[in-house]
Amino acid sequence: MEISVGQWILIAVLILVPLLYEWSATFKYFCKMAFYNGWILLLAVLAIPICAVRGRNVENMKILRFMLLHIKYLYGIKIEVRGWENFSLKEPYVVVSNHQSELDLLGMMEILPNRCVPIAKRELMYAGTAGLACWLAGVIFINRKKTDDAISVMSEAAQTMLREDVRVWVFPEGTRNHDGSMLPFKRGAFHLAVQAQVPIIPIVMSSYKDFYNKKDRRFTTGKCTVRILPKVDTRGLGSDEVPELTESVRKMMLATFLELSGEPSQSRDACSQ
Ligand SMILES: CCCCCCCCCCCCCCC(=O)SCCNC(=O)CCNC(=O)[C@H](O)C(C)(C)COP(=O)(O)OP(=O)(O)OC[C@H]1O[C@@H](n2cnc3c(N)ncnc32)[C@H](O)[C@@H]1OP(=O)(O)O
Ligand SMILES: CCCCCCCC/C=C\CCCCCCCC(=O)OC[C@@H](O)COP(=O)(O)O
């Protein structure tokens, strides 16, 4: 039997890819990240027709959550959740959490409360099938390049939360932070909570440093602890108190992050570097 050039190439790829995957941590990192994004885009293809039946609706977030929950098993990431009791509020609230990487999606889906939608950068809306799935699930998109637009979308969100009994999840660092600390917090989430006069629930995901590092191109299996902290009340607070509120919540989250990540306190504050 004669083997064609194409078949030789296929055989070489089938042999080389697994070898490279085993030998090179960098190659493994890129494969795992590519699969992560590709898999989510593919899952979104399945999610879209199911979500479309209801139209744009925050209840669709349950479908996305259900479809994404298994990914932690594919990647061998164990997620331990502490503080479930702090999620037992009936009323709307604003969740704020630290943002290390796109892998935060795993911790987020592990604990995402009912009727809770994230605030995301507008660019995500154009991320193909994932963008459409997010839109159908009621994800709130903001244009970070236009502060006034972002603020008005968030002010509208304050009204929607109360009118439609919706919870909102915000990453107050405003961008992914891969350096194992916490960036200074933007104030949008805190203005939102004060405008709606709803509590804030801080969430801390421990450092991924033992299993994931974007700079070193390292991605192995590992464990992440997600801690749900007690609610912070905003009743009676006005916009003048937002800066202090922001700082006190960040301080509490940073202390928890360092504790969960096994780091000495005070050593890793991105604000004091
Ligand atoms: C099958 C599967 C399919 C796929 C499923 C996937 C589903 C999951 C999707 C998850 C997506 C998660 C994506 C995460 C992200 O995209 S994070 C990035 C976007 N989020 C944020 O940026 C939120 C945090 N940012 C803020 O809060 C900012 O403050 C912002 C509102 C965006 C404005 O930012 P910026 O332009 O940089 O301005 P400042 O922060 O400097 O603010 C300027 C002044 O305005 C005041 N301010 C801010 N917000 C408000 C407000 N709402 N009301 C009134 N005033 C406000 C702020 O305090 C500043 O004034 P002072 O300096 O304090 O005087
Ligand atoms: C909690 C993370 C949610 C990730 C959901 C990604 C699912 C999309 C899958 C494939 C589409 C590829 C587009 C990748 C988009 C990554 C989303 C993300 O993590 O947004 C980061 C955003 O916060 C802050 O953006 P920057 O760190 O400022 O750039």
From TrEMBL:
- Report the enzyme's class at the first EC level: transferase
**Transmembrane helix as a keyword?**
yes
Query: What pathway, per the record?
Result: Phospholipid metabolism; CDP-diacylglycerol biosynthesis; CDP-diacylglycerol from sn-glycerol 3-phosphate: step 2/3
Q: Domain Phospholipid/glycerol acyltransferase: where?
A: 93-208
Catalyses which reaction(s): 1-(9Z,12Z,15Z)-octadecatrienoyl-sn-glycero-3-phosphate + (9Z)-octadecenoyl-CoA = 1-(9Z,12Z,15Z)-octadecatrienoyl-2-(9Z)-octadecenoyl-sn-glycero-3-phosphate + CoA; 1-(6Z,9Z,12Z-octadecatrienoyl)-sn-glycero-3-phosphate + (9Z)-octadecenoyl-CoA = (6Z,9Z,12Z)-octadecatrienoyl-2-(9Z)-octadecenoyl-sn-glycero-3-phosphate + CoA; heptadecanoyl-CoA + 1-(9Z-octadecenoyl)-sn-glycero-3-phosphate = 1-(9Z)-octadecenoyl-2-heptadecanoyl-sn-glycero-3-phosphate + CoA; pentadecanoyl-CoA + 1-(9Z-octadecenoyl)-sn-glycero-3-phosphate = 1-(9Z)-octadecenoyl-2-pentadecanoyl-sn-glycero-3-phosphate + CoA
A biological process term (GO) from this entry = phosphatidic acid biosynthetic process
On whether Membrane is a keyword of this UniProt record, the answer is: yes
User: Hey, what's the signal peptide range on this chain?
Assistant: none
Q: What is known of its domains?
A: The HXXXXD motif is essential for acyltransferase activity and may constitute the binding site for the phosphate moiety of the glycerol-3-phosphate.
Protein name, per record:
1-acyl-sn-glycerol-3-phosphate acyltransferase
Q: Which organism is it from?
A: Geotrypetes seraphini
Gene that this polypeptide is encoded by:
AGPAT1
